[in-house]
Write a structure and sequence with these properties.
The complex is a heterotrimer of chains A (327), B (487) and C (143). In chain A, 32% of the residues lie in helices and 14% in strands. Chain A contains 13 helices and 10 strands. The radius of gyration of chain A is 22 Å and the shape is globular. Chain A starts with 5 loop residues before the first strand and ends with a helix. Chain B is built from 15 helices and 18 strands. In chain B, the strands form 6 sheets. A 5-stranded antiparallel β-sheet of chain B has the order 3-2-1-17-18, with helices on one face. The two termini of chain B are 28 Å apart. Chain C is α/β, with parallel strands linked by helices and 143 residues long. Chain C is globular and about 45 Å long. Classes of the chains: A alpha/beta (327), B alpha+beta (487), C alpha/beta (143). Chains A and B meet through helix 1, helix 6, strand 6, strand 8 and helix 9 of A and strand 3, helix 1, helix 6, strand 4 and strand 9 of B. The complex binds iron/sulfur cluster (3 copies) and FE2/S2 (inorganic) cluster. FE2/S2 (inorganic) cluster binds next to helix 3 of chain C.
Chain lengths: 327, 487, 143
């Protein structure tokens, strides 16, 4: 046992889909278990929190962490694993960029609590109870972790060595990542363990994309029957392909649904939305201001399209320099 | 002095949970709390999103149970846009759902429940897992389970992109059709699944019915809980996962109410307690009567056994036979025996597999008409399906542009949250007397909550002999008195 | 109350704005002035970065309609600005903090005046809200 490199697989604020994705590497998982000593995998194995605490710093070769950070427990866990691990991989869109639950960063904790515990039509709460971090019930003291004001991607809490995007990441890239660690063939720290190109560069439909797309009308996915072999953008349907990193195997495109960007921005781009705005602006076929507005107003949920998986990591959402200085 | 046992973590809903057990002065179990420690606020951050994007966002609520969210959401869109899916689209959606049911139910059964039955609850934990199970029943079975799970997930991928995060689903239809080549391997998968599910059922029955010790355990008071039950039924009151009316029966098995899912808010109430992030669901008209069972309770359970309890039978012939046999063995309907959830789960798998077979052979499956474009926005849409773990409701409201202004969700495990507290309390009571925690308590508590929710804790048994359980006994000052762990 | 002077960043196209003026002299009169070649070269990321770095407003000056030396750089800029304004709004930052003007002013005399006007307008809005408060503003929109 002692010789095998130790691996921890852990979820923070995730949906479990990333853990399912690890299970989905099927036969390979058995090999992973053979060559690595898995010391922690809460959804699958014994939760050895104490044991992790007792380990020497750096004793774990690799921690694969999925999910974002939204409460005190998750922050504590992330920090503990960072201390004990040589390498930390942010696994999945939630860990890399915040993920869809990061859309909550445009709302407050109070707004969420008020709805969930007071205003929703099925709530029955005459005692005006709200979950509390510490409460006595019937003589017993119960605790809950503190729910934070916002969602953080992993690298806003701890240093991250590698990123593996996707919601969830696909099996081939997961296998490659494990193999790279095993064979010591990792790229420089800070790299994303996925191809560098944009989704459009690998998409079959790119062939059908005219050299110059000219959109005069943006269509929502329920409004049209999308052609199954023509570029979505050429059909006036928003597709995040131009600004999204490839590597998923075009799985959504294959079921005739446009990309929403779960792989995050292409290499070297720090804000997926910004990149997309430039790409989209260039294909809008209008010069008059009123035409521009008419067409672009169909982009009725800018954040939901352009930052679906990445609000917490977006430029505007991170704290401004002046706010950081104030502290 | 109040002693406290903590079991952490145990399951997921919108994430993680833990169990706290408190002892009274005499060292008996006073209370047990199943706490959900996470909240993510989907109901709020979905505001402002275009409704048609919802089926692609809500699967992130749970990556173990993403397909039901995807489908409930898609059905809410049908309602929102007053549209019926085309017959072909409906078949494709149901195919997706059945494939999900099979793979989800199977992984739960084989990885999580079966080891308890096949190897016995007191077997050495090092054997009481899928590895031990495979040793006992032969490697063929294990290989077959993995194979069927994989193939069912291929079907999901074909229809809905990533199995852990389905992306398809449109009002009035689906985004992609099925070709005749694809039909061939779908058919094969369906046939193999029906066949193998029967093998699995045979295995289970040989063990349980053939062994008095197991049957006694199933029937044991410690694993019994008298509550109401809720589930969808079709027009013939047969079990239906995808559509129908919600039927509720009382603890005696008498119909309490049957209602259109759109009326859910009249019947389901969510009580808020400060010690959990999850709202505790109960029958609203009866009022919140606290964590009690039997006479006077307003708690109901959902999930496999609940669905079989509320229905008059199964919708497919092979499953129907099994259904009759099960209730015979359990001494009639309704059955309050929590461990029978496992049995019910296998019978449901058989129905899902048979239904998959029906769909795979339906000439309409490969039809080209997969979208009904006759959409009329009516600003309110409610979609309901039976998720593997129980009734699931998505309720959306929008503005005139179809942008979301209101979201309410009732998810399966939240409805079982209060019953789980009670089940744990009962099972623990049998094993904790006078402050003495008997050997085997961990197993028994685990067995009490496991029927409700698999989560991947199943794979627990897959990869190691150890379990995710650790019980810490603390005195009232929080000082740890004793820590119990698996050997 | 402390006098609040908003930080404004002004990008202007060299082909249309102040090309006859003494750049050094203009620079003295306009704080945070970034002359560029064609407004179409201002990437979305530059605008977002300006806000991130603490700008309270961004003013973009491009050539008149039909007069861009790169054909449609100014139109591109205008489309981007419109999209960024929408994004700003969704993030709880007032869209008025970003403006684009397409015109010509070889002497560049109008620039300080336009910057001042926009500064005054932005001063009325006050500083950009902190991240936490912005969530509140954005949430209010969906009440
Ligand atoms: S990245 Fe996607 S699959 Fe992974 S935890 Fe987040 S929501 Fe779930
Ligand atoms: S925009 Fe979308 S459909 Fe078009 S080529 Fe790119 S990824 Fe493919
Ligand atoms: S197509 Fe886009 S949204 Fe879909 S899996 Fe690929 S990167 Fe993610
Ligand atoms: S050259 Fe002035 S805006 Fe393009």
């Amino acid at each position: 046992m002692a010789g095998k490199p130790k691996v921890a697989i852990c979820w923070l604020g995730g949906c479990g889909g990333c853990d399912e994705a690890v299970v989905d590497i099927n036969e390979v998982i058995l090999r992973v278990v053979e060559v690595f000593d898995i010391v922690l995998w809460p959804v699958a194995l014994d939760f050895k929190y104490d044991r992790i605490e007792r380990m020497d710093d750096g004793a774990i070769a690799l921690s694969v962490i999925n999910g974002n950070v939204r409460n005190a427990d998750q922050e504590e866990m992330a920090k503990l694993l960072r201390r004990k691990s040589q390498l930390v991989v942010a696994f999945g869109a939630c860990a890399c960029f915040g993920g869809t639950p990061g859309l909550a960063n445009l709302r407050t904790k109070k707004d969420i609590f008020d709805w969930v515990y007071r205003d929703a039509p099925t709530v029955v709460n005459p005692e005006k109870n709200y979950p509390k971090t510490k409460v006595s019930s019937n003589g017993a003291v119960l605790t809950l972790p503190e729910f934070y004001e916002q969602v953080y991607p992993l690298n806003q809490i701890i240093d991250v060595d590698y990123y593996l995007p996707g919601c969830p990441p696909p099996p081939d890239l997961i296998v490659n990542a494990f193999m790279a660690v095993l064979e010591g063939k990792l790229p420089p720290r800070g790299s994303t363990l996925a191809p560098h190109k944009a989704l459009c560069d690998t998409c079959e439909r790119n062939k059908t994309k005219p050299s110059r797309i000219a959109i005069r009308d943006i269509k929502r996915i329920h409004e049209v029957e999308a052609q199954s072999n023509t570029c979505f953008l050429a059909q006036g349907i928003l597709c995040m392909g131009p600004a999204t990193r490839t590597g998923c195997g075009e799985t959504c495109i294959n079921i005739n649904i446009p990309c929403r960007g779960c792989f995050g921005p292409v290499e070297g781009v720090k804000d997926a939305g910004a990149k997309y705005i430039s790409a989209l602006a260039s294909i809008i076929d209008a010069e008059e201001e009123k035409d521009v507005k008419r067409i672009l107003d169909k982009v009725n949920d800018e954040v939901g399209y352009l930052y679906r998986f990445s609000v917490p990591a977006s430029i505007l959402r991170k704290r401004r320099v002046s706010e950081v200085e104030e502290q | 002095m109040t002693k406290k046992l903590t079991i952490n973590p145990i399951t997921r809903l919108e994430g993680h949970g833990k169990i706290e057990i408190f002892l009274d002065d005499n060292g008996g179990v006073k209370d047990a709390y199943f706490q959900v420690v996470e909240l993510r606020g989907f109901e709020r951050f979905c505001l402002g999103r275009p409704a048609e994007e919802m089926p692609r966002i809500v699967p992130n609520i749970c990556g173990v149970c993403p397909s039901p969210h995807n489908l409930a959401s898609t059905k809410a869109l049908d309602d929102l846009y007053s549209v019926e899916p085309t017959p072909t689209a409906k078949l494709i959606r149901q195919l997706h759902f059945n494939a999900f049911y099979v793979e989800d139910h199977f992984i739960h059964f084989f990885f999580l429940s079966a080891p308890d039955f096949v190897l016995g609850p007191d077997a050495d934990p090092a054997d009481r897992n899928i590895v031990g199970l495979i040793k006992k029943v032969g490697p063929d079975v294990g290989g077959k389970v993995i194979d069927i799970r994989k193939r069912c997930r291929e079907i999901i991928k074909l229809i809905a992109s990533k199995p852990a995060h389905p992306e398809g689903g449109l009002p009035g239809g689906v985004s992609r059709g099925i070709t005749s080549e694809e039909r061939e391997w779908i058919k094969e998968t369906a046939d193999d699944t029906v066949q193998f599910t029967q093998v699995a059922l045979g295995l289970f029955k040989d063990l349980v019915l053939g062994n008095k010790k197991y049957l006694d355990m199933v029937m044991n008071e410690a694993y019994k809980l008298q509550t109401y039950y809720m589930g969808l039924v079709d027009e013939n009151r047969k079990v239906n996962f995808y559509e129908g009316k919600i039927r509720v029966v009382d603890p005696k098995g008498k119909e309490y109410v049957t209602f259109d899912p759109r009326k859910y808010a009249d019947h389901m109430g969510e009580w808020v307690e400060p010690w959990t992030y999850v709202r505790l669901t109960h029958l609203r008209k009866l009022g919140w009567n606290g964590l009690i069972e039997g006479e006077g309770t307003s708690l109901y359970r959902v999930g496999p056994l609940a669905r079989l309890n509320v229905a008059d039978g199964m919708a497919t012939p092979l499953a129907q036979k099994e259904y009759e046999q099960m209730f015979d063995a359990l001494g009639g309907k309704p059955s309050h025996h929590t461990l029978a959830f496992h049995w019910a789960r296998l019978i449901e798998t058989l129905q899902a597999a048979e239904d998959m077979q029906r769909i795979a052979n339906d000439p309409m499956l490969t039809g080209k008409d997969i979208r009904n474009m006759n959409l009329k926005l009516k600003k309110v849409g409610i979609g309901c399906v039976e998720a593997a773990r129980g009734t699931l409701i998505h309720h959306y409201e929008t503005d005139g542009q179809g942008l979301i202004t209101k979201v309410n969700l009732i998810v399966a495990t939240q409805q079982n949250a209060a019953p789980i507290c009670l089940s744990v309390k009962k099972a623990a009571s049998e094993y904790i007397k006078n402050g003495e925690v008997k050997e085997g308590m961990l197993n028994r508590v685990e067995m009490a909550f496991r029927p409700y929710d698999p989560c991947l804790a199943c794979a627990t048994h897959a990869l190691s002999g150890e379990t995710p359980l650790e019980v810490i006994i603390r005195d009232s000052t929080g000082e740890t008195v004793k820590t119990l762990k698996r050997p | 109350m402390k006098h609040y002077e908003p930080k404004l960043v002004c990008f202007s196209c060299k082909f249309g704005w102040g090309y006859l003026a003494d750049e050094e002299e203009l620079r003295h009169r306009i704080k945070n002035w970034v002359p560029i070649i064609c407004s179409g070269k201002i990437d979305t990321i530059h605008i977002l970065d300006a806000f991130k770095q603490g700008a309270d407003g961004v003013l973009i000056l491009g050539c008149p309609e039909g007069d861009c030396h790169y054909q449609d750089g100014n139109y591109e800029a205008r489309k981007r600005v419109y999209l960024v304004q929408k994004i700003l709004g969704a993030y709880g930052i007032e869209p008025e903090r970003l403006r684009i003007e397409l015109a010509v002013d070889p002497e560049g005399n109008a620039i300080p005046q336009m910057v001042k006007e926009m500064s005054d307008a932005v001063a009325k809005l006050g500083p950009v809200k902190k991240v936490k408060e912005r969530a509140r503003t954005a949430a209010m929109a969906h009440r």
